[in-house]
Amino acid sequence: MPIQGYRHSRLMEESQSRLEAAARAGPSEEMLVASRIVEHPTAYRLWEAEHDRLIRTVSAHSRLAPQIGALRSAAFGLIHRKALFEYLREREINGARRHKLFSLFYGSRDYANAVLAEHASFIRCSSSYLCADHLAEQLMRDAAFDEPLQLYQEWYAEYFRVFCDVELADTPDEKLALAPLDALKPLLKYRLKQARDSILALPQVPSTVWREVEIRRATGETQKLRRLSLEQRRVGLSSATNSRPPIGPPKR
């Protein structure tokens, strides 16, 4: 029997409560991100408007199953939109290379404004992803937001890192060193598509699917079990490829 979905007002209320709770939590990246939204009225209004539009793609469905699918799809978009700032932070890109990177994604737009816009977008998208994860776990009981989407984030970050590293290579030596990674881009992109399709195809019902993920969670009363290595998880979601799709800029 189809399960009734959640109303838009309930999803927004849960999101707002989760963000406010994160802003009050102890020192953590979640607290830093959430507080920059909650403590600044203008930033909060912008986030609320964006998050409202995102949640409407979920609440537009009256049944829970398609709501789960819509929330997963929205999560992919948030992961893509966070990637540029995460790359900047990881690689510590500065100077002329930083200007070159922003021109790659923002064209001829003023550099200073582009940096401010990207950072603000990162804060809003990170906050919305935090809320989406909460909705999936606490309301929809969708385990796809655990190991599967975590792995997808790792793979997308890897693809985005390779794409940007190759684009930023200036000298012949740098280009030569990155040539093997450049050749891997079609495979990395195809792996992302396969992972996305696999996640969207997971059962869209609250269930004990991916029960091992729940079992591995530490409760304080049980011993934490060994997590799968990244390579082992890669084997679980990836498959051999026989064709290579055309390369394009990472989705953001």
Task: Map the helices and strands.
Elements: H1 8-24, H2 29-38, H3 41-59, H4 64-91, H5 95-106, H6 111-139, H7 147-168, H8 172-201, H9 211-215, H10 230-237
Helix pairs in contact: 1-2, 1-3, 1-6, 2-6, 3-4, 3-6, 4-6, 4-7, 7-8
How would you describe this protein?
By secondary structure, the chain is mostly helical. The protein has one domain. Helix content is about 70%, strand content about 0%. The protein contains ten helices and no strands. It has helices spanning about 10-25, 30-40, 40-60, 65-90, 95-105, 110-140, 145-170, 170-200, 210-215, 230-235. The protein starts with 7 loop residues before the first helix and ends in a 15-residue tail after the last helix. The model is unreliable at about 210-230 and about 235-245 (pLDDT under 50).
